Amino acid sequence: MAAALSTCDIAAIVEDVRRYRGWSQGELARAVGYSQSWVSRVVNGQQSLTVDQVRDLASRLGIPLHRLRFGGAREPDEGDPTRRREFGKAAAVTALTLPLSAAAAPVPAAQAEIHEETAPTLRAITGGQRRMDAAAPARDLARGAIAHVELAGLTLERARNTPFAADVAAAASEAAGFAAWLHADMGDAGSARSYYRAAVERARRARSRLLDVYMLGSLAAFEIDADDPALGLSLAHEAGRRLGPGAHPTATAWLACVRAQGQAGLGRTAEADREIALAERCVGRADNAHPPWPWVFAFDPAKVAGYRALVNVRLKRPGQARTAFAEAFSGTRPGAKQGAVLQVEMARAHAHAGDTDEAFRLAGEALSTGARLRSERVVDRVRRFRKEYRGPRARAADRLDAQLTAVLTGGPSSPV
């Protein structure tokens, strides 16, 4: 193998891998997903490989690329790009690492792939996907997010008994939580619950109390939003028990707001108000400036005002709801999809106050955003708003009916 590397003999490298694993040529072909004739041409030196093919081979054969060390091998001349490319291909394809020293302990291949950059890399992928979610349809992101959840899960299994297992579990939890969020936006409640459960389980494996609380609280908020406030409140109380006393004020305030929504959904006005008051006290503390991971943005008074507005909508207090919405929108504007969800809740508040035209205007704007971004969550909110409306017939209601029909049937006035 060393000689093959030094001369960049890819055919010899592939053949040595086959013999080392005791495979026939057909078994090697099945392992790498190519035809036997293609493998035969590679082994006989008749088939050149692209860089993508080399990477694909390495992935399918489970080759830990970053662990390869070619200490004494002479690298190709810097001025010869062709030989540099061929040497890189040879290094990538090899499945046998050269010994670091005679006394070095062998590292299992599965563990060799896990290192200090594995978890940060997984988290960076989730972070990039999350940033795209603000203005991209969930369906456009879902396939990549699902693939990333599967990759993170496989990586987590390989990370067992390594020093990086907890960090990888945390990254895998974040990936599952984001996939749950996307499926909730697509209106796929069953898949959303499944991914949230995976996120909670992986958070526990990460032994991160705050991450555990965050994922369990996210599942609680999902159930409350899905019109099961009793279940959501039970989950939120369990998250509170796991959080315990003396936690960071951001975590305490956020979880109090989730519980407030559950209490409001059950019509418990006093309990909901107490939870909001607790959240307001927490965000007013001096040590709340920098949120702890996994919270990304500061949980400030404007965000609590948004939750207070939602609570007041559920408690049918339109005046207080509209005041709270004004406070919530006075700071940083939420993303397009989340802003549309809040618009529907504002519409409900205006409808409760008898301001029909403004209520349907807001609902129509939210529906346009939901249709443009193909958010079933937003569209369903507008449908529920229209179903709940019991006021007098108005032209604004007729316009919203026509808009809903266009969106749901793909008619000419639909922005989908």
Rg estimate, integer Å: 28 Å
Helix count from the secondary structure assignment: 21
- Main sheet, how many strands, which sense, barrel? none
- Spell the H/E element sequence: HHHHHHHHHHHHHHHHHHHHH
Low-confidence stretches: 64-112
Percentage beta strand:
under 5%
Tell me, briefly, the overall form: elongated
Structural class: mainly alpha
Distance between the termini: 57 Å
- The tally of beta strands, per DSSP, is 0
The residue-averaged pLDDT reads 80
The helix content is: 55-70%
Commentary on this structure:
The chain is an all-alpha fold. Helices cover 69% and strands 0% of the residues. It is elongated and about 80 Å long. 39% of the residues are buried.
List keywords for this structure.
mainly alpha; 416 residues; elongated
